[in-house]
């Protein structure tokens, strides 16, 4: 089982890479293809929306078919998407490629979580979930300076073609190495609708909507155009900032895992972490015109404290019946990922519609959007029920 989980973790590294690599690719794609920041925001949104849309069938497939075929075959589709990206000549092809890559990456984290939920005790689920997310976030790190170096050395098309080959190889490894857990009686029954009828999940789902969207949106795209437009940064400088934020996200995931187990109070951990993240988002809005060093420090803090996603998911998972494990974790993931796609499209339009009275003005509007959304979700989450473990 462990070698199969290792293959899923490697696939999740790729998933994290693909959702973040547009920030570093922005300058070269704009120069080579003439695509705008709003178009790239939309392409990033397509990735997250395709990823989110696939959660509905994936939940059923995990329970009924198992994680091996579900994740292996879909990741192969992601490899096709990467190949299309490498041959893109305009914004539409990039959007289509990103949608296919998003669909391909959609099952891998949930397949791992499904195996954790079915094979380990509930008390360690949050720790294992955070560990997989923490290791996977190394893909976010790879989508910073290492990606910039590869693009400079080989060209962006050749680099993405290489990624397509790696993605295909990992898909094959999943098909060969993953072993499905035994199916539970009743796994073919039930639906996500049954879970949505549980009021205990509603405040947690509200928190899922906002716990990951801000930092994913900022790290996945807006860091690139913001530092280019406001601070005149090039690809190398943007990659350095992306690296620091990515490392902060890795550290945050590793920090939250033990806290969940030691304190045994997920709600408290989530509340404090997201309150600090909210403060960082308002600081980004207020200091958007400040020096690059100040903004980088705020982004790093947001990346660290905003890594509560696996703990929120573990909180919701604790209320899900065993026979609906697959559908439960994918429902929670749907509420965590779909808002990112929507937010990227919305913030792209906000950015385009904001009068650039100063270079930072359009980005101030983007930062404020993320801050207000987080505040609303955090308020609703106050009414959630905790489940000590």
Structural class: mainly alpha
Rg (CA only): 20 Å
Low-confidence stretches: none
**CATH fold call:** Growth Hormone, Chain: A
The overall pLDDT, averaged over residues, is 89
Search tags:
mainly alpha; single chain; 389 residues; globular; 20 helices; Growth Hormone, Chain: A; 80% helix
Q: Would you mind describing this structure in some detail?
A:
- The protein has one domain (2-178, 190-381): MFS general substrate transporter like domains (Growth Hormone, Chain: A), CATH 1.20.1250.
- 80% of the residues lie in helices and 0% in strands.
- The protein has 20 helices and no strands.
- Helix 14 (213-231) runs antiparallel to helix 17 (292-305) and helix 14 runs parallel beside helix 19 (325-353).
- The mean pLDDT is 89.
In short:
The protein is built from 20 helices and no strands. With 389 residues, the chain is mainly alpha-helical.
Topology:
Blueprint: H1 2-20, H2 22-33, H3 37-53, H4 55-64, H5 67-86, H6 91-105, H7 108-119, H8 125-136, H9 138-142, H10 145-154, H11 156-177, H12 192-196, H13 202-211, H14 213-231, H15 235-263, H16 266-286, H17 292-305, H18 309-317, H19 325-353, H20 361-381
Helix pairs in contact: 1-6, 1-7, 1-8, 1-11, 2-14, 2-15, 3-6, 3-14, 3-19, 4-19, 5-6, 5-7, 5-11, 7-8, 7-19, 8-15, 8-18, 10-11, 10-15, 13-18, 13-19, 13-20, 14-15, 14-17, 14-19, 14-20, 15-17, 16-17, 16-18, 16-20, 18-19, 19-20
């Amino acid at each position: 089982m462990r070698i199969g989980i290792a293959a899923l973790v490697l696939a999740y590294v790729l998933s994290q890479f693909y959702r973040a690599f547009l920030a570093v690719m922005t300058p070269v794609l704009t120069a080579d293809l003439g695509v705008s920041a709003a178009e790239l925001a939309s392409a990033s949104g397509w990735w997250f929306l395709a990823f989110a849309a696939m959660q509905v069938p994936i939940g059923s497939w995990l329970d009924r078919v198992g994680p091996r075929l579900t994740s292996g075959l879909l990741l192969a589709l992601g490899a096709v998407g990467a190949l299309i990206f490498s041959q893109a000549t305009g914004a539409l092809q990039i959007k289509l490629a990103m949608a296919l890559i998003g669909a391909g990456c959609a099952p891998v984290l949930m397949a791992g979580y499904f195996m954790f939920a079915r094979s380990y005790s509930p008390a360690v689920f949050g720790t294992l979930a955070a560990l997989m997310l923490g290791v996977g976030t190394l893909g976010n790190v790879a989508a910073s300076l290492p990606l910039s170096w590869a693009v400079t050395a080989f060209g962006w098309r050749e680099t993405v073609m290489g990624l397509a080959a790696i993605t295909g190889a990992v898909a094959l490894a999943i098909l060969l190495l993953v072993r499905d857990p035994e199916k539970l009686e009743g796994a073919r029954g039930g639906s996500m609708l049954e879970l949505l009828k549980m009021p205990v999940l509603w405040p947690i789902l509200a928190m899922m909507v906002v716990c990951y969207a801000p930092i994913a949106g900022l790290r996945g795209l807006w860091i690139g155009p913001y530092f280019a437009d406001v601070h005149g940064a090039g690809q190398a400088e943007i990659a350095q900032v992306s690296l620091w934020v990515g490392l902060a996200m890795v550290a945050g995931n590793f920090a939250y895992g033990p806290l969940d187990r030691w304190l045994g109070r997920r709600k408290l951990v989530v509340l404090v972490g997201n309150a600090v993240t909210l403060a960082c988002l308002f600081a980004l809005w207020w200091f958007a015109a400040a020096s690059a060093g100040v903004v980088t420090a705020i982004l790093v803090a947001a990346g660290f404290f905003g890594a509560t996603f696996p703990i929120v998911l573990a909180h919701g998972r604790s209320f899900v019946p065993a026979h609906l494990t697959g559908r439960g974790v994918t429902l929670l993931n749907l509420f965590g990922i779909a808002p990112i796609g929507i937010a990227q499209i919305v913030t792209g339009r906000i950015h385009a519609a904001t009068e650039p009275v100063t270079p930072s003005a359009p980005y101030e509007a983007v930062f404020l959007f993320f801050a207000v959304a987080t505040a609303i979700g955090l308020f609703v989450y106050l009414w959630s029920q905790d489940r000590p473990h």
